[in-house]
User: What shape does this take?
Amino acid sequence: MMRASPSNIKPPLREVSNEKRIEVARNIAFHLLEKYEDAVLAVYISGSTAKKLDRPYSDLEMMCVVRDGLEVPKKYCVCDGLLVEVDYPQESGFLKAARGPGWDWPIQADQYRNHIVLFDRDGWMKNWPRPLRKMTRQISPRPFDSRPSQ
Assistant: This one.
């Protein structure tokens, strides 16, 4: 696995199927659990791979939610021709982001609804529904229905 940053990714990328992306993600999850052990609360796939909308050269987006206090920077790598991004949010920040819409709410909300769970310590992901319901209630289901006054 070669480390890379978004600005210097130059290794040859290759066509990768959805099934192969998930296989690579399972291997990465195994290594994350070996490295960070009990600090890992959840590991999951998000983005187009989770929705099975990935294309042959799509990247693989993963989240590794860790306990508060462990700071791990976001990592990019190329693994066997596949561009991989792993983000490591801390538990409290992750759940806080789930509670309220921010400027990137459509992107953030997608990962809460569309994901493939690779690891879930003691059912930790059950913490998601309540914050997500609260966030969804704050957004009008039909924001463009009102007509301008004349």
About this structure: Helices lie at 18-36, 47-50, 91-99, 105-113, 129-137. The chain has one domain: 2-137. Confidence is low (pLDDT under 50) at residues 135-146.
